[in-house]
Design goal:
Structural class of chain A: alpha+beta
Radius of gyration of chain A: 23 Å
Number of helices of chain A: 9
Helix content of chain B: 10-25%
Number of domains of chain B: 3
Shape of chain B: globular
Number of domains of chain A: 2
Order of helices and strands of chain A: HEEEHHEEEHEEHHEEEHEHEEEEHEEEE
Oligomer: heterodimer
Shape of chain A: globular
């Protein structure tokens, strides 16, 4: 049997053995990753994988599996076990049949551009990025370059039979002037012509150079300019925690907020996997439903949670094409741009802070949105619209809803962000936020 | 086992034949079963098979790694060629040739046998247990007129089977069963507002661990304590005072502010663009970072621990590492690559979380070593202070120097006695500031389970964090955010 035929074979098996509904997804992927630090490569890695994910329902009874031994014998054994296990489990509260197809998909989203996967070419990208950071004044650079292509083939008992390709190039580079003066930037692309390792290296190097000789910052509330890497982290929180599953689990500050103004009117957030050629583009979700452009927040008002068919049934809504078979997920987060240049945003700051990156965002309480995160890399003091010095040791300790409400303005140019700390690809501008609360160590 | 042996042998011999200076084959299988239970509903029962081989080769001083889940010989040969290709094609960007240092290499089988096997507990029994636990949460909260509007719990059991073979003679076959429980509960009271708590439990072993935990009892007690905080807690005192930290916080501090800084790969900058670096340097052995009462160990050999192993994924024998001894940096965590650079023996800290991840330096069970005091003696000597038993929000900067812990279950201490609960006391301090303020540790020792994140792609690996109660003298405590 051709490996591509496995999903429909599984669906046939499922029907035969008594599943009410069954979905099977085959993911075949190739990925090359080069890691570097101190201007040299530390390891190069090549991954080849093929995995099958299967979800079955026997009316309200659900079970799921992921297997990667693709022999017919193993598949058949697992399908039988899955159905047997599903029948043994306690029934869930709702039954939502898998959506009925067949569906038609946007053909632009089914094919991915060719990306280079040979380590030689990728190694030349690494070299160019490092050199660019060094030319910008960095003394050393570290990071990761990844290239991947994958094909997802899906079949469901809802008469869905489809496959789509995905591909991308991702560079994350951090430049160092000293141990405490650093800059970080990225190049994230769904197609090779959008990939620019030199630019990422240059920006990282320039942030590091500007961050030299940092002094301890003073805690307080500041008008704050968040760079795209930081704003993407915030935007990921809104996107991920708009998943109806997490809302139901209490793991979200968006509980009971549909129709409410959760942010400044300047903020509109869309999940748009229909942007062909972007890194988060996809034609269908894990139930085979065609993806669509979903406005999550429109001019500050929370419009929808993200649904699969089960959460949709539970919430009395339609699926939004965001299955995740158990947990709905955003695919490709887009913030509508504002109208200001970086200089115009900075000019609105009389005495404030510009943060270029952050990490380790943790909640005190998901429901209330109380959280803190550590700014890292360039943290700058801005006086009368100009960067005057570099800070260290500060922490943003605030509330997610308050930060969203306090968005003053957004930049007009946007960049794609995705890296170790930001899971969902996000196209975001700079964001100017008032009254951001900063704390620092007390001893 | 023999076919695994043959395959691993074939890989290593072929790699050496192709000119590798070092080769390592790891045949690695994880078989996992999980239940996901939310608000009294079983969302799904899932099981997962992850089976494949990770191959690492050192060629001309350059490291290459390849993984595949297709285990026919042709596929293996292809993966091996790719590992070579990866190493060779980037070798011109390797300025300091990598070499594998020495370690006490093993040739052993390490098989952890569960007393109660996972197969003897069917999905229905697992679900019943979690359902009962869910009911205990609701009932416990209701005695305080507190609601629990959201509960999510997962119960995972999995078995890891690994065969690691290296070109210089290590051969380790291991079978490790693990069990882990996770919960996030949200409590609500009209006057007290909302409170959330994570609970993580995990051990190496079989179902007997879960029986011993007694989940309904644990969750009942946790819920009661949190409900009290929700309805009785007063504003946390702020300013300079004595603080007693419970084992849960002492564990996370030991992990974040001692374990991570002591990872030799961080010191060398290997994680600089991901989890960051460390305030420690290659020559920091002997550096005083805390008072003489601070002793922190990392020990993978603790039987039943979540981070248990006896040989690491480079085949090196594991042992207890004393990272901070009497307040002084004593030892770093090493793999064979960093051991070579530092001119020491590897102390067996190299682990990979799955077949498709390369082994990197990881903590195992990191904990503050118990002291001489009874728990009561620690409190007796505190005139005015707070006792922080658990936490929710925490983070630390990427140099492991600036950390914050916000107390969840916390109490005021007056004249040596635990008084009323206090709401969300904030400890925000430097690593040296925190360790230097310690003036006593109790004799007790408790552990918590966690998954430590590191590497790229991310490797979330099971660990324990732990310690006794410790006392900090005259540290500044902040109150809730405005």
């Amino acid at each position: 049997m051709n490996v591509k035929e496995i999903p429909s074979y599984i669906v046939d098996l499922g029907r035969k053995y008594g599943a009410t509904d069954i979905a099977a997804k085959l993911i075949e992927s190739q990925k090359v990753m080069i890691r570097f630090s101190n201007n040299e490569v530390t390891i190069s890695k090549i991954f080849h994988e093929a995995t099958i994910e299967i979800f079955v329902m026997v009316e309200k009874h659900r079970a799921a599996t992921s297997i990667n031994t693709l022999s017919i014998k193993n598949i058949e054994r697992n399908v039988k076990t899955l159905i047997r296990v599903a029948k043994m489990t306690t029934p869930a509260d709702v039954y939502a049949p898998l959506p009925k197809g067949p569906f038609s998909y946007d053909p632009r989203l089914l094919k991915a551009p060719e990306v280079p996967l040979d380590p030689e070419t990728l190694s030349s990208y690494v070299e160019r990025a490092i050199n660019s950071a060094l030319e910008s004044g960095a003394k050393r650079a570290a990071g990761t370059l990844s290239a991947f292509k994958s094909e997802i083939s899906i079949a469901t008992s809802g008469e869905v039979y489809a496959s789509q390709e995905k591909a991308g190039l991702e560079l994350s580079i951090r430049a160092f002037i000293s141990d405490v003066a650093t800059g970080h930037f990225l190049s994230i692309a769904g197609k090779p012509e959008d990939f620019n390792p030199e630019e990422a290296g240059r920006v990282a190097g320039e942030i590091a150079r500007a961050a030299d000789n940092p002094v301890p910052g003073e805690p307080g509330k500041y008008m704050t300019l968040l760079g795209p890497m930081v704003f993407a982290d915030i935007v990921n929180q809104v996107g991920i925690l708009s998943s109806a599953f997490l809302v139901d689990a209490g793991q979200s500050f968006l509980v009971d907020k549909i129709g409410e103004k959760i942010s400044s009117e300047k903020f509109t957030l869309v999940d748009d996997p229909t942007l062909a050629g972007s890194i988060g583009a996809r034609a269908f979700d894990d139930e085979g439903v065609p993806t669509r452009r979903n406005i999550i927040v429109e001019n500050g008002v929370l419009k929808t949670y993200l649904h699969n068919s089960i959460t949709a049934k539970k919430f009395g809504k339609e699926t939004t094409g965001n299955a995740g078979i158990i947990v709905p997920t955003p695919w490709n987060l887009i913030v509508e741009p504002g109208g200001k240049s970086f200089e115009e945003l900075s000019a609105q700051i009389d005495d404030g802070i510009y943060v270029t990156n952050d990490w380790y965002l943790r909640y005190q309480n998901y429901r209330t949105g109380d959280f803190s995160t550590l700014p890292r890399d360039g943290i700058f003091r801005i006086r009368r619209g100009e960067i005057v010095s570099s800070f260290r040791e500060l922490r943003i300790s605030d509330n997610m809803l308050r930060i969203l409400q306090n968005i003053v303005d957004l930049g007009r140019s946007r960049v794609w962000i995705k890296w170790w700390e930001v899971e969902i690809p996000s196209l975001v501008p700079h964001a100017l936020i008032s009254e951001v609360n900063f704390t620092k160590p007390l001893i | 086992m023999s076919s695994l042996e043959d395959l691993a042998e074939f890989i290593v011999e072929s790699a050496v034949g192709m000119g590798a200076e070092y080769a390592e084959a790891r045949l690695h299988t994880d078989l996992r079963e999980s239940i996901i239970f939310k608000n009294n509903v079983l969302e799904a029962f899932t099981f997962e098979e992850s089976r494949g081989v990770g191959i690492r080769v050192l060629v001309d001083g350059s490291l290459g790694f390849a993984s595949t889940n297709r285990l026919r010989k042709d596929d293996i040969k292809k993966a091996l060629k790719q590992a070579f290709k990866a190493a060779k094609s980037t070798s011109k960007l390797v300025k300091h040739k990598i070499s594998m240092g020495k370690g006490e290499l093993g040739n052993e089988k390490v098989i952890v046998k569960p007393r109660v096997s996972f197969t003897s507990v069917d999905p229905e029994a697992r679900t019943s247990l979690i359902k009962e636990t869910d009911e205990e949460i609701i009932s416990s909260a209701s005695t305080f007129d507190v609601k629990v509007p959201a509960r999510i719990m997962t119960l995972d059991t999995w078995i890891t089977e690994k065969l690691v073979k290296t070109s210089d003679g290590a051969s380790i076959y291991s079978v490790t069963p693990r069990i882990a429980f996770f919960a996030l509960i949200t409590l609500f009271h009209p006057q007290g507002g909302l409170l959330q708590r994570y609970i993580n439990l995990g051990e190496t072993g079989g179902w007997e661990a879960c029986e011993r935990w007694n989940l309904p009892r644990i969750l009942h007690e946790e819920t009661s304590a949190l409900a009290r905080v929700l309805i009785e807690a007063k504003k946390s005192p702020a300013g300079e005072m004595d603080v007693i930290l419970g084992p849960e916080i002492v564990g996370i501090v030991s992990h974040e502010s001692c374990g991570h800084p002591c990872e030799a790969d961080r010191i060398l900058g290997r994680e600089a663009a991901q989890a960051g670096e460390t305030f420690l340097k290659s020559d920091s052995i002997g550096l005083r970072v805390g008072s003489k009462y601070v002793n922190v160990a990392d020990d993978p050999t603790i039987k039943g621990s979540f981070g248990f192993y006896l040989y690491d994924d480079e085949g090196v024998k594991a042992r207890r590492r004393i990272l901070i001894k009497e307040g002084v940096i004593n030892e770093f965590l090493h793999n064979r690559e960093t051991a070579s650079i530092f001119g020491v023996m590897s102390n067996g800290a190299s682990r990979a979380v799955a077949y498709n991840r390369e082994p990197i330096i990881r903590m195992s069970n990191t904990f503050f070593l118990p002291g001489d005091y009874s728990k009561d003696e620690l409190f007796e000597d505190v005139k005015e202070g707070i006792y922080v038993k658990s936490f929710m929000e925490w983070n630390i900067d990427d140099r492991r120097f600036n950390q914050r812990y916000v107390g969840l279950e916390a109490y005021k201490i007056e004249n040596g006695e635990i008084k009323n609960p206090v709401r969300a006391p904030v400890l925000e301090m430097t690593t040296i500031g925190l360790w230097s303020a310690v003036d006593a540790a109790s004799k007790d020792l408790e552990f918590q389970a966690a998954y430590c994140g590191k590497g790229d792609p991310m490797q979330g690996i099971p660990v324990w964090t732990g310690g006794p109660h410790i006392r900090l003298r005259k540290v500044r405590v902040g109150g809730m955010r405005e």
